[in-house]
């Protein structure tokens, strides 16, 4: 549906009044009505890097989910205030690893005698607490666009990696990109005693994968890939690495949201694509390339939007911007000093990856 013209005008007016005081960042999974007002759009890596690009901006309005706003707060100066237009915009994957569970896991690894040899690598999609844990234990953050480099770095620091919280990104990177075998990976289940693993299993494993997943990408299946190949002969299947291993293994191309956009920009006219990632992005790309004779379809019509990404809508954005105009900062995301210190260590290790 087209956006309410009144709200569009209000967002425009508020942004204009704020001028350089506000910097609006938008993740690729955001609604069109929100993306329209973003000064910068990007994947998680680009947005983490760009958050600090405008140190003069007093306010950073982050159109994305909670962990992204936290990361922006960690990576920007104290004078900059980060706003998340709807505090309910969380991420179910990030919620799958709590600080207590991860501390317990580290104890299990310590008791099995493997903690000293283990380097934590945490996906950006995690809370600031998990990032701080990672920094404290000599590890790094990664995103879907640098997971391989992060793992290569980690294996220079130790013999094993504890990969949090997305088991699929961890497994896909290890197996598809780095040639490890599925047997090198074990899954730590935080809901089972000792993660459901014996000390022997922990000692034998190279990749210890946290049992977390994305509820959106987890719904694409091998059937989704097989069905689309049957329906559209010659189709290129391009999926996000948060998809299950069997989906990634059956796909033609795999990459982050930024990678997906670049791949479609470079695709020749007449080519056909089935995309396995969030629906807002796929729809936007299908519309954008429709007149260039690139057929772009959603990999599986039964999969839905990311409901938390979608919580940021035009009314919430207008509310956030107009509050700032009135001198009131709503929904500020502020990470405490100690957490910030260690989380920043881990984030900076990622930003320094070759
Ligand atoms: P990227 O934009 O880094 O590919 O991340 C996808 C995602 O799920 C963010 O929540
Ligand atoms: Fe989290 Fe998945 Fe939504 Fe990304 S798409 S914010 S990983 S639930």
Automatic annotation (TrEMBL):
InterPro entries registered for this protein in UniProt: NadA, NadA_sf, Quinolinate_synth_A_type3
Record flagged with keyword Cytoplasm: yes
Entries under Gene3D superfamilies matching the protein: NadA-like
Alphabetic keyword roster: 4Fe-4S, Cytoplasm, Iron, Iron-sulfur, Metal-binding, Pyridine nucleotide biosynthesis, Transferase
Cofactor(s) this protein requires: [4Fe-4S] cluster
Chain positions recorded as iminosuccinate binding sites: 27, 44, 123-125, 144, 240-242, 257
The protein's Enzyme Commission number: 2.5.1.72
Enzyme class, broadest EC rank: transferase
Localization of this protein: Cytoplasm
Catalytic activity as recorded in UniProt: iminosuccinate + dihydroxyacetone phosphate = quinolinate + phosphate + 2 H2O + H(+)
Family in the record: Belongs to the quinolinate synthase family. Type 3 subfamily.
The protein, known as: Quinolinate synthase
Organism for this UniProt entry: Streptomyces rapamycinicus
